[in-house]
UniProtKB/TrEMBL annotation:
This is Ribosome-binding factor A. Residues 134-151 have a biased composition (Acidic residues). Pfam families: RBFA. One of its GO terms (cellular component) is cytosol. It comes from Pararhodospirillum oryzae.
Length: 157
């Protein structure tokens, strides 16, 4: 088992990941890729994670405007040698990392969380107000044996 599982990425991994992200974004912006599946598409690279030995990098990409990511990922995998060459020209590392492409689902996850926070039940819980369903006595529990009146003493104490 690798020692780095569970560890935060090193400063060098973060720096190399950012350099790769900027290089890929520049290539996508210029439209230098001659891959039919990627022609005319606007892509964004949200994050690049680099392995501790700097030999593998996973780029999280998203198609702006939505759409099918399977076709985009297949095109990126076919264009990988060209993209790796572009990155090698900008990096100052001994080895150019092998590129992997994954769909970025963080925007979808953020949208899901935002939708959950807009749900009336969750909103009620966050604001601490009672529900508007007409069940005002919802908090009272008939099986609750506690004596809420501080003026009366409990028997047997």
């Amino acid at each position: 088992m690798p020692r780095s599982i569970g560890k935060a990425p090193s400063q060098r991994q973060l720096r190399v990941g950012e350099e790769i992200r900027h290089a890929l974004a520049e290539v996508f912006e210029r439209g230098d890729i001659h891959e039919p599946a990627l022609a005319g598409l606007a892509l964004t690279v949200s994050e690049v994670r680099v392995s501790p030995d700097l030999r593998a990098a996973t780029a999280f990409v998203m198609r702006l405007g939505g759409g099918d990511m399977n076709e985009v990922l297949a095109g990126l995998r076919r264009a990988k040698p060209f993209l790796r060459h572009c990155i090698a020209a900008r990096l100052t590392t001994r080895y150019t990392p092998d590129l992997r492409f994954e769909p970025d689902e963080s925007f979808d996850e953020a949208g899901h969380i935002a939708a959950l926070l807009q749900d009336p039940v969750v909103r009620r819980d966050l604001e601490g107000t009672p529900a508007a369903t007409g069940d005002e006595e919802q908090d009272s529990d008939p099986d609750d044996d506690r004596n809420d009146d501080p003026d009366t003493e409990r028997k047997g104490s």
